[in-house]
């Protein structure tokens, strides 16, 4: 199973070399190999084991994305609260929790740092071992309204029809309507009819209950797409009428 779920276009070797020259650091070979596939993106594996409890749980911690070159963080505001020797490059952030490379030796170790609880853990002796330790376990859907958008995108990309509907129903009154419509649009463009069907259902809910918060041009485009596909024509006609009334 590939570590990548989806991501940005590949990084060029010249771009990787330029980053290393600018920062006077060499990225691990495995990290550079990943960048040559996707220059950052969502991961298909989202947990890794830890030796002691963290704010995530007793025996593991979470990761759902890895940064591309532009997203790597050398200096962050929170680091003033934890005095870490040497250089660190963080490739994942979840609120106050970071995962990164610790350059206290030639081959950097992978560390987990929680700047709220002031916890620092070495989670792998090198990046290759870290990637090898990753595994998939579903995130708890009940807490979806509290999750950052990137984490939600990872969940939706891995979800079956029932789970995708459950997640998006929990998020239907979320303020980020452009993001929410993008998720519906992805469903409407699915090659699988059940995903398109729940996309129509979710769009219906948005039109009926949140229409004043929606981008009119965006909704028109979505309805026009559905009409061109002749999918669930009676329902789509009802939505068009409701939208234009």
Structural account:
With 245 residues, this protein is α+β, with helices and mostly antiparallel strands. It has 2 domains: 4-133, SMI1/KNR4-like (3-Layer(aba) Sandwich), CATH 3.40.1580; 146-244. It is 41% helix and 16% strand. The protein is built from 9 helices and 9 strands. It has helices spanning 13-23, 29-35, 127-133, 149-158, 161-170, 177-188, 193-210, 216-229, 233-244; strands at 4-7, 41-43, 47-49, 60-62, 65-66, 88-94, 97-102, 109-114, 119-124. Strands 6-7-8-9 form a 4-stranded antiparallel sheet. A hairpin with a 6-residue loop joins β7 (97-102) and β8 (109-114). The protein is elongated. It starts with a strand and ends with a helix.
Structural class: alpha+beta
Strand order, sheet with most strands:
6-7-8-9
CATH architecture of the largest domain: 3-Layer(aba) Sandwich
Q: What is the N-to-C succession of helices and strands? A: EHHEEEEEEEEHHHHHHH
Low confidence ranges: none
**Tell me, what's the shape?**
elongated
Distance between the termini: 49 Å
Please give the count of helices.
9
Number of strands: 9
The CATH topology label of the largest domain is: SMI1/KNR4-like
What portion of residues is helical? 40-55%
Integer tally of domains: 2
Q: Gyration radius, to the nearest Å?
A: 21 Å
Taken as a percent bin, the fraction of beta residues is: 15-25%
Q: Identify the CATH homologous superfamily of the largest domain.
A: SMI1/KNR4-like
**Class of the largest domain in CATH?**
Alpha Beta
Q: Summed up, what is this model?
A:
The protein has helices at residues 13-23, 29-35, 127-133, 149-158, 161-170, 177-188, 193-210, 216-229, 233-244; strands spanning 4-7, 41-43, 47-49, 60-62, 65-66, 88-94, 97-102, 109-114, 119-124.
């Amino acid at each position: 199973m590939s570590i990548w779920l989806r991501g940005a276009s590949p990084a060029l070797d010249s771009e990787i070399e330029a980053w290393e020259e600018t920062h006077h650091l060499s990225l691990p070979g495995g990290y550079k190999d990943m960048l040559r596939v996707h220059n950052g993106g969502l991961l298909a594996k989202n947990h890794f084991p830890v030796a002691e409890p963290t704010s995530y749980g007793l025996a593991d911690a979470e990761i759902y994305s890895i940064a591309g070159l532009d997203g790597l963080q050398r200096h962050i505001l929170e680091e003033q609260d934890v005095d870490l020797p040497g250089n660190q490059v963080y490739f994942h952030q979840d609120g106050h929790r970071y995962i990164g490379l610790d350059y206290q030796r030639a081959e950097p170790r992978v560390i987990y740092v929680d700047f709220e609880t002031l916890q620092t853990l070495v989670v792998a002796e090198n990046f290759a071992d870290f990637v090898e330790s990753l595994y998939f376990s579903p995130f708890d859907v009940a807490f979806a309204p509290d999750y950052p958008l990137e984490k939600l995108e990872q969940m939706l990309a891995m979800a079956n029809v029932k789970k995708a509907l459950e997640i998006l129903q929990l998020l239907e009154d979320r303020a980020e309507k452009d993001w929410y419509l993008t998720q519906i649009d992805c469903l409407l463009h699915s090659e699988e009819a059940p995903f398109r069907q729940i996309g129509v259902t979710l769009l219906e809910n948005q039109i009926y209950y949140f229409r004043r918060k929606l981008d009119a041009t965006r909704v028109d485009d979505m309805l026009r797409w559905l009409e061109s596909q002749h999918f669930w024509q009676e329902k789509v006609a009802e939505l068009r009428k409701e939208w234009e009334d």
